[in-house]
């Protein structure tokens, strides 16, 4: 049986969410990719959308909409839930962020601009999240779908476990 998860060989094999790295450059690079893509595609990266993305990029944890709303309010962007939800909808719709279904929360995309099906590894102790790309149409799920004539349009793969930091502390 072929694995549905296919790590991108150009990515760090340790996954950004689970190891120490220069986080300032991580945030800077994520914002730069979003700004470039919005300019190229004629999308509006409004100040509130940019700030919401920046908030998500600041940690490799999924954040709920109300946590994001609190941070947006602290930054002067208003306190009504639609402020956060509209920004998050834009970010998810355009591939700059993903929704983690299990946590009902959002995380910045680790592969913005790349067409992919995300797969998430979520630490059940600290809620750290690492993203990799998956290829469900090429693995067992794809085989099952083809067997019944089903066309996969979207998948969300979420694995729960313990990250390296929490394993070391145990």
Polypeptide structure, described:
The chain has 170 residues and is of the alpha+beta class. It has one domain: Orthogonal Bundle (Arc Repressor Mutant, subunit A). It has six helices and five strands; from the N terminus they run ααααββββαβα. Strand 3 and strand 4 form a beta hairpin. The radius of gyration is 17 Å and the shape is globular. The N terminus is likely disordered.
Put the structure in a nutshell.
This protein is of the alpha+beta class. It has helices spanning 23-41, 47-57, 65-74, 81-93, 140-147, 164-169; strands at residues 97-100, 105-108, 117-123, 129-134, 157-161.
Characteristic key phrases:
39% helix; globular; 170 residues; Arc Repressor Mutant, subunit A; single chain
What structural class is derived from the secondary structure elements? alpha+beta
Low-confidence stretches: 1-14
N→C terminal distance: 33 Å
Number of helices, where a helix is a run of at least 4 consecutive DSSP H or I residues: 6
What percentage of amino acids are in beta strands? 15-25%
- Cα shape: globular
The CATH class is Mainly Alpha
- Remind me, CATH topology? Arc Repressor Mutant, subunit A
Going across the major beta sheet, what is the strand order? 4-3-5
Domain tally: 1
Look at the structure and give the mean pLDDT. Answer: 83
Number of strands: 5
Approximately how much helix is present in the residues? 25-40%
Q: What is the string of SSEs from the N terminus onward?
A: HHHHEEEEHEH
The CATH fourth-level homologous superfamily? Winged helix-like DNA-binding domain superfamily/Winged helix DNA-binding domain
The CATH architecture term is Orthogonal Bundle
């Amino acid at each position: 049986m072929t694995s549905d998860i296919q790590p991108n060989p150009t990515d760090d094999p340790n996954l950004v969410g689970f190891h120490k790295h220069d986080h300032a450059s991580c945030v800077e690079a994520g914002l730069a990719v979003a700004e470039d893509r919005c300019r190229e595609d004629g999308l509006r990266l409004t100040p509130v959308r940019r700030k919401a993305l920046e908030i998500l990029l600041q940690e490799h944890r999924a954040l709920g909409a109300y946590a994001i709303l609190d941070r947006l309010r602290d930054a002067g962007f208003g306190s009504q839930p639609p402020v956060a939800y509209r920004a998050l909808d834009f970010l998810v719709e355009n591939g700059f962020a993903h929704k983690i279904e299990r946590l009902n929360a959002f995380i910045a995309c680790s592969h913005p601009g790349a067409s992919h099906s995300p797969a998430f590894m979520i630490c059940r102790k600290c809620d750290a999240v690492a993203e990799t790309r998956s290829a469900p149409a090429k693995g067992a799920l794809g085989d099952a779908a083809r067997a019944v004539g089903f066309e996969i349009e979207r998948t969300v793969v979420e694995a729960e476990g313990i990250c390296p930091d929490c394993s070391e502390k145990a």
